[in-house]
Design goal:
heterodimer, A: Rossmann fold, elongated, B: Rossmann fold, 434 Repressor (Amino-terminal Domain), 58% helix
């Protein structure tokens, strides 16, 4: 649990700065034992929307809260946080947050996302996370489009002391994936992490390319990719739902990595994604260093939403 | 969304048309719809609140209430107000002399600074400037390498240094520019969180050292509510001169544009609309307003079309149409223009009302490619006179273009229909044309797929010919 408390500290630190400016935090309102009234509910709604949870989902949560209040299940503002926590935490059952592992290694993790969401950095951190558990990791540099993306991943592979399979910039990403699978099998790796080029979900052909990469991997290592992680920038707004939808259609996303949560954005959009497309969050990114990756903890996350 | 919004407005106001009076409550109800639309577009909660209040004041002025179509007037008020808020347009870059003019790009991680730096350099080059890029992102692995590669692609020099001191690199870079007569310097800085004190201080130090003439915040158009926090912090620390909005080629509604403008008061100068380095455009608040409200972008459409068709060409085409002498060659040319405009899908997105309905539809640009292949497999004679295409010719064309013979006859049929209609239309007045277009809309052609008409097509040669042929054998 030490990991989580570190998360909380980081989150709190990040949040405090923005909170100080806004003035009184909602948290203080919620712990003062004030009676619930429409005013407070509106305040809460504002908070939820400001967290990027989205209008629809926010209104639904507030409705839940209102009916619980009308049914006298809750009366004072102190009850609100536990109620909402339970409401939201139910979204993310424990078992769904673990990495899906292959029956026999290697476990293949395909990493996708829109441009600039933080894929390469996340892979670097994930490599560090896994190799520090004494797992043998191989990276596949399938972002052959962006200038110097391969170099960037190479630097990460050196930093985390894991192997990397790469081709020239501009080569076929599916071919790199193919070779990476070969290498992972030959070297008896526990994990193969595949980096892909950032692509907007509206680019049909690029999405097809992604499907192709997945299919190549699946043919090479039956049952793979075991995880398809979509990296999502925590600052993203409502468009993230569309993103998740399209990526899910293309490659069946199994989990989200919520990156850049060390800023002031709360990443509330994952609640909407969970509600609408049913994709769980698996990891959060909290910085640019190799250790700045942690398993997602819904409790901490929900707490941060209201602080 | 535009349709949805105007529909809602109309619903709100419809019940009143009989009474000829609109109450404050109705306007209020309509404003709730606006509020939701804006929030769904990621405009910041507080910004939406202020905006709605101010619009409500305006809407309650007599105009909306007395007008015949209050729903539409309401949308206009909202749209105008949005446009005004995001304007005025100011995509000028102010150069200093003697140079170099120093432009600094700052922003969060992954907002697109490096790509934007390269795009901006290309833009400046096209304006006859001699830009220099400075790779001052010393944080992210291989960031320097990335900018260098982009610089090579554009043939624009990139100044970089193996150092950990961003201030020093910036200072040396500007000196390098002066020495080498580069008149504009673009400083690409590392992405940083607005609450990262250390890195924000570094940024101010860089600014102190080289005193940039223009400081632009690079902002991802997909950003949500948090856009206000980061923009405000960057503006407080750096005194921004403008904003560049990136990744607008996606389907995000881009409410961040409004939030950022509202909180910093700084104009949005450019927008990034694609991964290629020429995809940097000047910002147009009116178009952005339509986008945020989910309305189509007709202006962009017209502009795109203008890029492709010269007035002369249009005139020629008009003549051909009226004579009904359109050939497959012209058809091909049109197809290619559509392709150049970014494909059917891109075009449809810009048409009001269509954008929102596009969700489930699948416009396959591959279809255009296929049609192209078919036409290219025709001989010149066949292109000018499709009537001569008989079974054997059809078979040959199908083989040449890798389609079924029925696809070929389908295309010929559609082509003939189009030609007929165009001919008929050219004789009509404006109203008649509109009607005809409506009819056209009901045809298969615009239902998302090219028609797959399987019609028996007989040879136009006379039977006698065949008999003769036989006899000859």
């Amino acid at each position: 649990m030490a990991l989580f408390s570190k998360t909380l500290d980081k989150l709190r630190n990040g949040l405090r700065k923005s909170r100080d400016k806004i003035g009184g935090s909602l948290m203080t309102v919620l712990t003062l034992g004030r009676r619930i009234d429409e005013n407070l509910l509106e305040h809460l709604e504002e908070q939820l929307i400001s967290d990027d949870i989205g209008v629809e989902t926010s209104l639904r949560i507030i409705e839940d809260l209102r009916s619980a209040w009308k049914e006298k299940k809750i009366a004072s503002s102190e009850d609100i946080l536990p109620f909402l926590k339970q409401d939201l935490i139910n979204c993310w059952p424990n078992r769904e947050r673990r990495l899906i592992l292959a029956d026999s290694p290697p476990t293949v993790i395909l990493v996708t996302g829109v441009n600039g969401s933080g894929k390469t950095t996340s892979i670097g951190k994930l490599a560090h996370y896994l190799s520090s558990q004494n797992k043998k990791v191989v990276l596949g540099a399938c972002d052959t489009f962006r200038a110097a993306a391969v170099e960037q991943l190479t630097i990460w592979s050196r930093r985390t002391d894991v192997q990397i399979v790469k081709h020239q910039q501009g080569s076929d990403p599916a071919a790199v994936a193919y070779d990476a699978c070969d290498a992972a099998l030959a070297r008896n790796a526990d994990f193969l992490l595949i980096d892909t080029a950032g692509r907007l979900h509206t680019q049909k052909n690029l999405m097809k390319e992604l499907t192709k990469i997945r299919d190549v991997v699946a043919r090479k290592i039956p049952g793979s990719p075991h995880e398809v992680i979509q990296v999502l920038d925590a600052t993203t707004g409502q468009n993230a739902v569309n993103q998740a939808k399209m990526f899910n259609e293309a490659v069946d996303v199994t989990g989200i990595m919520l990156a850049k949560l060390d800023g002031t954005a709360k990443g509330g959009i994952v609640v909407a994604i969970r509600n609408q497309i049913n994709i769980p969050v698996k990891f959060v990114g909290l910085g640019e260093g190799p250790e700045d990756l942690e398993p997602f903890d819904p409790e901490t996350f929900v707490e941060a939403l209201f602080s | 969304m535009f349709d949805a919004l105007s529909q809602k407005f109309n619903d709100v106001f419809r019940g009143l048309s009989g009474r000829g009076r609109i109450s404050e409550a109705n306007v209020h109800e309509a404003m709730r719809q606006v509020r939701t639309a804006l929030l769904e577009a990621d405009v910041n909660y507080k910004v939406v609140k202020d905006f709605c209040e101010s619009v409500q004041q305006k809407a309650l002025g007599a105009d909306v209430i007395k007008s015949l179509h209050p729903g539409q007037v309401m949308i206009k008020v909202v749209n105008d107000e949005l446009t005004e808020l995001m304007g005025p347009v100011d995509s000028k870059i102010y150069y200093v002399s003697p140079g170099p003019t120093v432009i600094l790009l700052a922003g969060l991680q992954g907002s697109g600074k490096t790509t934007t730096a390269a795009k901006l350099a290309k833009y400046l080059l096209a304006k006859g400037k001699l830009p220099l890029l400075i790779a001052d992102d010393l944080q992210r692995p291989a960031a320097i390498e990335q900018l260098r590669t982009l610089g090579e692609q554009l043939d624009i020099p990139v100044y970089s240094e193996d150092s950990k001191n961003a201030v020093k690199v910036a200072r040396h870079g500007v000196k390098f520019a002066t020495k080498n007569n580069r008149d504009v310097v673009i400083l690409d800085t590392a992405g940083r969180l607005h609450i990262d004190k250390e890195l924000m201080d570094e940024l101010s130090n860089v600014c102190d050292a080289v005193t940039p003439h223009q400081i632009y915040l690079v902002c991802d158009s997909m950003t949500g509510q948090d856009a206000v926090n980061s923009a405000k912090e960057f503006n407080d620390k750096l005194e921004l001169d403008g904003v560049i909005l990136t990744k607008l080629d996606g389907d995000a509604r881009g409410g961040a544009a409004l939030s950022v403008k509202a909180v910093t008061g700084k104009p949005i100068k450019f927008v990034g609309v694609g991964e290629k380095l020429d995809k940097l455009e000047e910002f147009h608040p009116d178009r952005m307003a339509s986008r945020i409200l989910g309305m189509g972008d007709v202006v962009s459409l017209v502009e795109k079309a203008q890029e492709q068709f010269s007035a002369e060409e249009a005139q020629k085409m008009q003549e051909k149409l009226s004579k009904g002498s359109l050939t497959f060659d012209d058809f091909l040319k049109q197809m290619q223009s559509v392709k150049k405009m970014g494909g059917i899908k891109d075009i449809m997105k810009l048409v009001p009302g269509l954008g929102s309905q596009m969700g489930g539809m699948d416009f396959d640009d591959g279809e255009i490619t296929r049609i192209e292949a078919i036409v290219r497999s025709m001989t010149r004679q066949e292109r000018h006179n499709p009537d001569i295409i008989d079974r054997s010719r059809r078979k040959r064309i199908a083989r040449g273009s890798g389609v079924e013979p029925s696809d070929v006859s389908g295309l010929v049929k559609t082509f003939n229909q189009t030609r007929q209609m165009m001919k008929a239309m050219s004789g009509m007045g404006m109203m008649g044309r509109m009607k005809a277009v409506k009819q056209l809309g009901n045809m298969d052609m615009f239902s998302g797929k090219m028609p797959q008409l399987r019609v028996k097509q007989r040879s136009k040669r006379k039977r006698v010919d065949r008999k003769k042929k036989k006899r000859r054998r």
